[in-house]
User: Fold these one by one.
Assistant:
Number 1:
Amino acid sequence: MKFIIDAQLPKRLSLLLISRGFDSIHTTELEKGNFTTDKELIEISIRESRIVITKDSDFYNAFLQKAEPYKLIFLKVGNASTDEILAIFSKNMELILDYLTYNFVIEIGPKNIIVII
């Protein structure tokens, strides 16, 4: 699986995914860095079959309207610290990957993971 991490999330999340053997990029690595638009991230996601990981509800709404980006992990963790976000992914990685195999959008909260579509 390939991932693209949105600007408001820590680069360490991308590094965690890379350490687990996945292809992951953070917006800071793109030509426009954190100024890359949502539209551009969606285009990259579709072109490269990358799963967008974001806290931005605009991506969630875009998926409901246009079935874009390719796939989406929508984090609803409030002002969670970087360590808390990394812990959620580390603890639930197998379940997250399993859900993404057959689904397009999952929502991750501090205590639950929900398949949306």
Number 2:
Amino acid sequence: MKTQDLLNHFTKNLNPRFRNWIGAEIETHFVGAKGRPITIGCSQKIFGELTQKGWNVATTKGNLVSELRKGGAKILYELGRQNIEVSTEAMCHGDIQGSTEAILKELYACATLCNAHPLFEPIINSKEDLLIIPDERDASWLALDGKEALSLLACTASVQFTIETRGPEHAVILLRELPNAALYMHARNPYPQDKLWMEYIATSKAGYRIDRYGYVGSRAKDPLYLIEDYVNLLSQHDAVIDGKLVPFADAELPIDTFLRSVWWKFRLRRYSDRLCIEIRPIARRTDGEIWSSLSDILSGLANFDR
């Protein structure tokens, strides 16, 4: 990969019309009647019930159904066998809550038919082996990280919102200022996963740079004033390819695959012709707390609109 390609990814052929698009990724733990994490068999039954509601099988791994789709929405495994993620398509601010709640309601109903129910907690306490590897990207991480490190992330459930920016300059302002705004957000919805992510980085056999997780540009020696600064910081990180770390300049893989493997709490993503910022450090709690967190985020973002 070349840094110029990465810069072009964030700056070229963007739609100048701002639509206030928002997408959501909501992970949920599911447990059985005795409060134990559901089995792979139970989660597969839930996926089966969803196919009866019009969801289509999009991806399989071996004998496992790993992803369902309906329109632009997805339901899929996260790293834990008990952790099922709902991923929505980007849509206008006024539509995101109602559309997402309808999908969650359908998921909960199908889980009930399988004697399972959602656990609205960010971390599930279990000594069981929860890790499930539903796609090739995760399999590559397992080979690189080792099971002990990756299993730390299998017991967490988080929420991410992907919010459209007004372009590269606006996006950089948000990246620079949002860590301060996050202090208020976390006062209402603490993020206990933080300690597990730091332990993951420290215990992984990969030997990641310590700043592969955290706030981008938060160190004094890494000022963030231009989109070029952001690109330069990204290019300092190796890419994950076939269970190995490969220097950025030597790596040949899709840009978005690389971007997903640098776990900054606020990071830029490109969706179609829109430049968005992904807000990641939100703990999974009740559905109501999801939307209060989004309200806090949008209030914080409004302070930086131009």
